[in-house]
C-alpha cells in the first residue's frame, strides 16, 4: 500500500475528484488509474479496484473505450461459455472463481433501484471428446481438475451413447463431462452489469481512442551491461470521437485491457520498438484473429440435455434456446487464418470445414439449415495462447490484462480481482497468476494450455 501511495504522490497533483459534476462523455483531466478498453476485462478491473480501494471514494478510476456501442467488441461477440476443464491449474482456479461469482452475481453487482441481474445461465456442461491418441492427456487433465475441486467425470463410448443417444462415437475413445459450474450465459448482460456497478461506485466512462502517451524516460545499465530505457507514463492522450481534438489524462497507473488491439497500445509506450535482440525489442505478442460463429436449425437435433460439445477435430457446438437451434464453429489452422480487416463471415468455411465434422458427430446435423452467423476477434497470444497479466519490466506503471485467446469472458471476474490486487497491494493474493507475466517472453518460457478451443 505504501508503494502504491508513493506512485500516486509522484504522478499526480492533489486534485479533488468531482465525478458527479463531470461531463461523462469527456475524459477527466486526472485519474489515479486509466483503463484502456471498456470490454468485460476493463470493467471488471474497474469494479474490483473500487471494491478494494483502501478508503471509500478515494481512488479515481477512468475507463476509456472507443466504441460504446460495442459493435465489434469481442465480449459481446463471444459464445458465452464457461468451463473448468483446463490443463493448467491457474486457468481452472480462475474459472472456478468466476463460476462462484456468476452464481452469486447479485451479491456483487446489484445496483439499488435497478432490477436483479439475470445472465441467463444455462448449466448444461462441457463435453470434451478424445481420440485414442488424446485419451491419456484427457485423463491427466481430469485428474488435475478434480484436484482443484472441479466436478468432472470420464465417460466411455458406451456411457456416452447411453447419455447422449444422438451422438456418433466413432473415433472417440474417452470423454470428459462437466457436472457443475459449466455452461453458457449472456455476455452482454454481464458486461453491462459490471459497467453499471462500476459507474455507480464512481468510475468514469469516456468515449475516445487512446492515441499516445506522454512518457518520462531514463536510461539505466542492467547487470549484464545493457543500456535500458525505463519509462513511466505521465499522461494518456485520448482522441475524441469524430474529432481531431484530444484530451490528456494525467495519471499514475495505466492498464492495457485493449484486447485484440493491445499491441498497438503497448507500442505507444515504446514496447517492442528497440533492437530485436534487446529487452526493449520484445513485443507484446498479441494480435487480432478473426473467428466465425454459425447458427443453424436442426429440428431433430439434440434436446435440452445437449452440452457444449468439443469434438476430437476441434469443432464445437451447443444448443441455442429450446427450438432446435444450435451455434458453433471451428478455429482455422494457421494456413487458413482469415483477413482481419473486417468482420465479414466466410460461409464456405462452414460448408467445407465445419459442417462435415458436425454431421459426422451428430447424424441429425446432416440436414441442418444455417440461419445466421457472425464474426468476432480473439486477442490471440501468438507466443503460447495464454493471457498476459501483470506489469511490464521497463514501463513501471503499465499493467497488462490481455491475450486471453478466447477465454477472457469467462475469466474476467477472477482476472479483474487479480489485477486490482496487484495494483493496490503489489502482489497477487487470491490466485497467483505470476505464470502469465510479461517476463516469460524474456525467458522464453511458455505457459501452455492444452484445452484451447
Automatic annotation (TrEMBL):
It is a single-pass membrane protein. Residues 32-422 form the FAD dependent oxidoreductase domain. The keyword Chloroplast does not apply. Keywords: Electron transport, FAD, Flavoprotein, Glycoprotein, Membrane, Mitochondrion, Mitochondrion inner membrane, Oxidoreductase, Respiratory chain, Transmembrane, Transmembrane helix, Transport. The gene is FOXRED1. GO terms for molecular function: L-amino-acid oxidase activity. Its EC number is 1.4.3.2. InterPro entries: FAD-dep_OxRdtase, FAD/NAD-bd_sf. One of its GO terms (biological process) is mitochondrial respiratory chain complex I assembly. Belongs to the flavin monoamine oxidase family. FIG1 subfamily. It is found in: Mitochondrion inner membrane. This is FAD-dependent oxidoreductase domain-containing protein 1. GO terms for cellular component: mitochondrial inner membrane. It is an enzyme of class 1 (oxidoreductase). It comes from Varanus komodoensis (Komodo dragon).
Amino acid at each position: 500500500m505504501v508503494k502504491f501511495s508513493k506512485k500516486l504522490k509522484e504522478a499526480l497533483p492533489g486534485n479533488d475528484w468531482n465525478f458527479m459534476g463531470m461531463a461523462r462523455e469527456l475524459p477527466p483531466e486526472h485519474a489515479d488509474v486509466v483503463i484502456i478498453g471498456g470490454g468485460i476485462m476493463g470493467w471488471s478491473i474497474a469494479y474490483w479496484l473500487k471494491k478494494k480501494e483502501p478508503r471509500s471514494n478515494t481512488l479515481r478510476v477512468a475507463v476509456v473505450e472507443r466504441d460504446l456501442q460495442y459493435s465489434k467488441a469481442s465480449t459481446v461477440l463471444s459464445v458465452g461459455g464457461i468451463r473448468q476443464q483446463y490443463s493448467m491449474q491457474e486457468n481452472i482456479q480462475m474459472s472456478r472463481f468466476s463460476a462462484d461469482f456468476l452464481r452469486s452475481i447479485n451479491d456483487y453487482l446489484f445496483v439499488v433501484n435497478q432490477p436483479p441481474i439475470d445472465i441467463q445461465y444455462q448449466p448444461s456442461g462441457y463435453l470434451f471428446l478424445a481420440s485414442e491418441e488424446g485419451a491419456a492427456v484427457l485423463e491427466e487433465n481430469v485428474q488435475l481438475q478434480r484436484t482443484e475441486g472441479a466436478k468432472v467425470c470420464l465417460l466411455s463410448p458406451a456411457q456416452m451413447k447411453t447419455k447422449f443417444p444422438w451422438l456418433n462415437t466413432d473415433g472417440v475413445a474417452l470423454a470428459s463431462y462437466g457436472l457443475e459450474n459449466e455452461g453458457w450465459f449472456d455476455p452482454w448482460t454481464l458486461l453491462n452489469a459490471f459497467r453499471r456497478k462500476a459507474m455507480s461506485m464512481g468510475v468514469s466512462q469516456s468515449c475516445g481512442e487512446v492515441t499516445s502517451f506522454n512518457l518520462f524516460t531514463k536510461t539505466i545499465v542492467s547487470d549484464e551491461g545493457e543500456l535500458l530505457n525505463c519509462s513511466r507514463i505521465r499522461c494518456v492522450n485520448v482522441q475524441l470521437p469524430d474529432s481531431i481534438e484530444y484530451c490528456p489524462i494525467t495519471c499514475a497507473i495505466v492498464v492495457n485491457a485493449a484486447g485484440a488491439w493491445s499491441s498497438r497500445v503497448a507500442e505507444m509506450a515504446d514496447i517492442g520498438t528497440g533492437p530485436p535482440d534487446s529487452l526493449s525489442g520484445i513485443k507484446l505478442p498479441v494480435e487480432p484473429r478473426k473467428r466465425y460463429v454459425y447458427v443453424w436449425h436442426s429440428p431433430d437435433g439434440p434436446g435440452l440435455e445437449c452440452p457444449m460439445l468439443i469434438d476430437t477435430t476441434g469443432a464445437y457446438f451447443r444448443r441455442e434456446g429450446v427450438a432446435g437451434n444450435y451455434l458453433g464453429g471451428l478455429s482455422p489452422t494457421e494456413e487458413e487464418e482469415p483477413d482481419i480487416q473486417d468482420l465479414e463471415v466466410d460461409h464456405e468455411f462452414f460448408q467445407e470445414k465445419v459442417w462435415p465434422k458436425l454431421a459426422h458427430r451428430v447424424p441429425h446435423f446432416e440436414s441442418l439449415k444455417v440461419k445466421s452467423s457472425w464474426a468476432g476477434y480473439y486477442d490471440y497470444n501468438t507466443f503460447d495462447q495464454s493471457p498476459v497479466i501483470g506489469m511490464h519490466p521497463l514501463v513501471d506503471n503499465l499493467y497488462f490484462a490481455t491475450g486471453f485467446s478466447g477465454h477472457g469472458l469467462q475469466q474476467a471476474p477472477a482476472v479483474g480481482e487479480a489485477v486490482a490486487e496487484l495494483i493496490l497491494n503489489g502482489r497477487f493474493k487470491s490466485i497467483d497468476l505470476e505464470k502469465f507475466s510479461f517476463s516469460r517472453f524474456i525467458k522464453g518460457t511458455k505457459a501452455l494450455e492444452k484445452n484451447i478451443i
